[in-house]
């Protein structure tokens, strides 16, 4: 993957996750992570690279793993289940219970 393509991918993921978290206004999210709004806008547009510390702050604020923002296989929101209040763990438990029930039903 070329550098520009990677920047655009990460930017799209950040924007999708930001909106899914309820941060419709870019300014609100930029304030939350302590970043200038114009810099965040350029990151989301794929016009600016991002260092690992900033990426970590963004991922933590979005409650997703950093590496999930690089996943080409996902088209939409990366983490539909947030880790806060047990989110991801509860979804995993639910999925395992569902699979167990499906096997039992066979």
Task: Write down the oligomeric state.
Answer: single chain
What is the CA-based Rg, rounded?
16 Å
Tally of separate helices: 5
Roughly how many Å apart are the termini? 43 Å
Number of strands: 0
Give the ordered list of helices and strands. HHHHH
Poorly predicted regions: none
Q: Strand portion, in percent?
A: under 5%
| Class from helix and strand fractions | mainly alpha
What is the residue-averaged pLDDT?
81
Shape, per Cα inertia axes: globular
Largest sheet: none
Q: Please estimate the helix content.
A: 55-70%
Helix and strand topology:
Elements: H1 3-20, H2 26-33, H3 37-44, H4 52-62, H5 87-105
Keywords:
106 residues; 0% strand; 5 helices
Written description of the protein model:
The protein is 60% helix and 0% strand. It has 106 residues and is mainly α. The radius of gyration is 16 Å and the shape is globular. The N and C termini lie far apart (43 Å). The model has no long low-confidence stretch (mean pLDDT 81).
Compact overview of the structure:
With 106 residues, this protein is an all-alpha fold. The protein has helices at 3-20, 26-33, 37-44, 52-62, 87-105.
């Amino acid at each position: 993957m070329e550098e520009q393509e990677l920047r655009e991918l990460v930017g799209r993921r950040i924007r999708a996750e930001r909106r899914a978290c309820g941060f419709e206004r870019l300014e609100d999210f930029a304030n939350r992570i302590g970043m200038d709004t114009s810099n965040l806008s350029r990151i989301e547009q794929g016009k600016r690279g991002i260092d690992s510390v900033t990426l970590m702050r963004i991922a933590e604020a979005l409650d997703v793993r950093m590496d999930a923002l690089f996943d080409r296989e996902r088209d939409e929101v990366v983490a539909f289940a947030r880790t806060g209040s047990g989110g991801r763990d509860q979804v995993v438990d639910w999925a395992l219970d569902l699979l167990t029930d499906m096997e039992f039903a066979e």
